[in-house]
Amino acid sequence: MRRFWIHNVLPLVFTTVPVLAALMLFAAIPSDARRDYLDRVAVSPIDWIILGLGFSLFTTQIWMMWRALRWRERESDFDPRADRWLSHLAQAAEWFPLLGLIGTVVAILQTFGAISPGSKPEPSEIIRKYAPAITATGGGLYMAFINILPTWVVAVSRDLIRSLGGYAPEPETTDEGKK
Is the pLDDT reported for residue 174 higher than 60? Predict the structure, then answer.
């Protein structure tokens, strides 16, 4: 029974942690803000790019997490082949805030470009035009957050699975990269 838990149940449970965190974070956004964001995303190509790349990356990382957390009985350790890819994918997540910033700058330029020189627009008009600029930043930050979670969860989960399985913890890496 213990083997079943270590080989199947725990990897599945730990793989759901980033998915649940992403859903909880989305649910925690106030409903008005969430509705405004989704309305803006429907007409914003930069948001489509950010969300499309972000969720593709996230889905790939979840699949890699499953592979990385599978215990190999013969070697008495985890399969390290997915580690390199998880690391690369987590590094790719660092680009999402920058994509969001590009989208924000473009939307701000559009906002101020729509105001005629010499006109005196009402503050409410400026706010209405400016508000959509923030959606790209929000999308980029959200994608960065959910895409850095899988690598961290794998590291923590492996230590826990090793402990529960009665195996020695993985040796710490020194500054020189040697074990």
Answer: no
